[in-house]
Amino acid sequence: MDMNKMMKQVQKMQAELAKAQEELALAVVEGSSGGGAVKVEFTGQEVSQVSIAPEAVDPEDPSMLEDLLRAAFNDGLRAQQALASERLGPLAGGMSLPGMH
């Protein structure tokens, strides 16, 4: 087993992981519901924008807007998870260390 080669491989993976994490922190994803009536934009792990179309606001039925907001947030979170999996997935399985299965 060549320890120098293994250490270089580990350092390369760490650099790739750090770069992917930095990209994810700046990535913008959007969740929406109600055919786009409610949209929630995430930048990294934070909500950066929320937009609500006037037709989504019914003073007689606030629970409808609550449901639309919840669905839009969940849609955005799923988009974040998919992006993280897409960017980090290859790094997680990309290195095979002897004795580590």
Beta content: 15-25%
The chain-level structural class is alpha+beta
- Number of separate strands: 3
Radius of gyration: 20 Å
* CATH topology description of the domain at 33-91: Ybab, Chain: A
Shape: rod-shaped
In the predicted model, the low-confidence regions spanning at least 5 consecutive residues are 95-101
Number of helices: 2
For the largest sheet, list the strands in their spatial order: 1-2-3
Taking the alpha carbons of the first and last residues, their distance comes to 16 Å
Structure description:
The chain has 101 residues and is of the alpha+beta class. The chain has a domain at 33-91: Ybab, Chain: A. It has two helices and three strands; from the N terminus they run H-E-E-E-H. It has helices at 3-26, 62-92; strands spanning 28-33, 38-43, 46-52. It has a three-stranded antiparallel beta sheet with strand order 1-2-3. The relative contact order is 0.18.
Q: Layout of helices and strands, plus pairs?
A:
Blueprint: H1 3-26, E1 28-33, E2 38-43, E3 46-52, H2 62-92
Antiparallel strand pairs: 1-2, 2-3
Helix pairs in contact: 1-2
